[in-house]
Amino acid sequence: MKLTRRSLILAAPALLVARQAWAATDPTPRASEGPFYPVEIPSDHDSDLVRIDSLVREAGGEILQLRGEVTDTGAKPVAGAVVEIWQCDANGVYRHPGDRRPNLRDTAFQGFGRTTTNSDGSFSFRTILPVPYPGRTPHIHAKIIADGRPALTTQFYRAGYGQNDRDFLYNRMSAEERERVSMAIRPQSSNSKTQWETDIVIVLPRRG
Ligand SMILES: [Fe+2]
Questions:
Q1: Is the pLDDT of residue 3 over 90?
Q2: To which CATH superfamily is domain 5-203 assigned?
Q3: CA of 29 to the centre of ligand 1 (A)
Q4: Are the CB atoms for 135 and 127 separated by under 8 Å?
Q5: In whole angstroms, how large is the CA radius of gyration of the chain?
Q6: How confident is the prediction for the chain on average, in pLDDT?
Q7: What is the average per-residue pLDDT within 48-70?
Q8: How confident is the model at residue 25 (pLDDT cuts 50, 70, 90)?
Q9: CA of 30 relative to ligand 1 center, distance in Å
Q10: In sequence order, which residues have a C-beta less than 8 Å from that of residue 2 and are 6 or more positions away?
Q11: How far, in Å, is the centroid of ligand 1 from the Cα of 97?
Q12: Can you give the pLDDT at residue 148?
């Protein structure tokens, strides 16, 4: 077939559908675990990173309700998957002996949380809006472990954050990959404390 301008225009919707179907079933892009995965899992590692059981004070920072869904490459929810997240505190310091600025650490921030997906693949965390730290744009690390599949380790970014374009890991991704690890963060008006919410989708790699 001779490719005229008109035939290209007519074919465009079909190409678009094919591309979207491909995008929906491709696994979430992987990213390095980085140096700050906990050396030892803390005793309080629940899905509320803003509060540590033994403390009255809550962590500093702006609260983020992080909701997500874990699916397979066929867009089917994955129940019972273990989802872990970890991130630095509001001062940009990790709860990790390798962080070089321990004196600045917010001791009320849990830093790491773990949960399991429900029957519909959903999960949620109460955490803080990620902030930059030296050398990195804001991000939340995540690791997902599900039966019979290779573990997926990745990082999620704040959509539209000015510093993203200067981040060495963010820059390694294509525009489409960036889109799939970006969190669109919306204000949540129901609380007097500054609060935000976001929804993400994590697509697991195929069974090994
Ligand atoms: Fe990090």
A1: no
A2: Aromatic compound dioxygenase (2.60.130.10)
A3: 16
A4: no
A5: 19
A6: 89
A7: 95
A8: confident
A9: 14
A10: none
A11: 14
A12: 87
